[in-house]
Amino acid sequence: MNEIENTLDKSLDKLEHGLNIAGYVPILSSFSGGLRAVLGKIEIIGAIAAAAIMAVAALFNPDAAQRQAQLNKALQIAVKYSLHGAANMFRGTVESIPFVSLVTCLPYDLLGHRFAYIREQGNNHGLYYVQQLGSN
Q1: Residue 134 pLDDT > 60, yes or no?
Q2: How many CB atoms lie within 10 A of CB 30?
Q3: Displacement of CA 23 from its chain's centroid (Å)
Q4: Which of 50, 72, 99, 114 is 20 to 30 A away from residue 134, measured at CA?
């Protein structure tokens, strides 16, 4: 699962970075903001679906310790991506208003503190990470 999460986190990070840049351009930000809001919804739905599948699979594990670990991982996935999706929806809404993202999102990004995927930890410093339940 770590390989999949690494790939997913890095891909989402690159996509969001591109949306960040588009979000600074006043008229273009209306389109990129709408796209980011839809991305956030998809991220939340995907997180809940993936966590549900993982939880159901865990229920069939006869080993109680492994079952609990799998359930914790499912909860971690649901929380991690749902919170990040909600943050994308919020930012997408802000970016949809022309010129607002230029004075709000740009300074916020320049500060270097933002919601980031946990896999970004080694690559970026000074980021605000979404808290994860049961993380190592």
Answers
A1: no
A2: 16
A3: 17
A4: 114
